[in-house]
Amino acid sequence: MSLNLLICGMRVRIHTKDKALHESIERYYRPALQRCSSIGAKAQIDKGEIDLEIDILENSLQFIQGLATETPADQSLFSQLESALVQTILGSAGIHPVLHAGCVYHRGRIIVFIAPSGGGKSSMTRAAVRAGASYITDDVLVIKSGTLYGFARAIRQEVVSPQLDPIPHYLADCHLEVLRVVQRSPPIAVPIWWQGGQVIHALPINGQEVIVVNIERGPQLIRPFSAIERMIALHESAIVSSAEYDGSLGAGRGFSLAWEDPAEAFAALDSIISDPKGTPESPKSSYLASVV
Predict the structure, then answer these.
(1) What is the SS3 assignment for 288?
(2) What's the pLDDT at 171?
(3) Which is nearest to 137 in space by CA: 127, 151, 116?
């Protein structure tokens, strides 16, 4: 059984004889199974030669085509596969920047969510997609020659115990996929969410506004920040740094967003960025704080 994926601009083919593993990979990487779509230009990344081909054996990965990477033997095959994909993305990036960030396309604007692990990138990306945004990534964003490429996988939520009963309301529409990050007992469950929607695998920036949102958990508040703060936020999110920030992501506004409820916070953010003239006193921007 084989799966063809589009991940960060790479064409990936995966083979496995394990039906359960095949179904898990297909569920987890469902957004990457969709055909490439782009806005503003034709980016035909879904045609051509395979960049990475992997055969999943009984206890290990065999790299048929592409750069072989080392994967820890104490990880499950599923985790070894994800590790191999991430290492390949970073290894093939070259001089192009790679950001630890979520990204959506909404109302003609590119919105980049920046936060450390656990800060809410996935929660805010999910809220945006539920509000009608097109999905690019919730974790890894690659910028090549003025085009954004995302790590298109199902949106992951915080790790929970698979024995949870009842399931918390905020995970009610998630699939509780059990993923053994290391061989340990009991396993952890990584709730994943994908209910459909438009996926963009390649998005040319073409001078569009790029809004950078630095997010954190806390009492809900939105504060616009300066161009310098915006650039610092981008730099701090970089896994692979590059001067291409200036040419690709240099134009646009920036905000600091503290949130308690992701849906409510994104609705407030959407209202503000859609009405740049909003002020802290206007009903549309009740969450907007003054610049300090």
Answers:
(1) strand
(2) 80
(3) 151
Which amino acid would we find at residue 133? A
DSSP structural state of residue 10 = E
pLDDT-derived band at 155 (thresholds 50, 70, 90) equals very high
Answer for the pair 67, 91: CB distance below 8 angstroms, yes or no: yes
**Does 118 score more than 50 pLDDT?**
yes
Give the integer Cα–Cα distance in Å for 114 and 121.
6
204 confidence band (pLDDT: 50, 70, 90): very high
Phi, psi of 74 (to 5 degrees): -85, 5
> Count of H helices and E strands in the chain?
7, 17
150 versus 73: which is more confidently predicted? Answer: 150
Instruction: Name the H helices within 206-255.
Output: 227-236, 244-249
pLDDT for 3 beyond 80? yes
Q: Tokens representing 34?
A: 């969709």
Of the chain, the end-to-end C-alpha distance in Å amounts to: 57
pTM passes above 0.90? no
Strands (E), the chain: 2-7, 10-16, 52-56, 61-65, 98-106, 109-114, 134-137, 140-144, 147-150, 155-156, 175-179, 188-193, 202-204, 210-217, 221-225, 238-240, 254-259
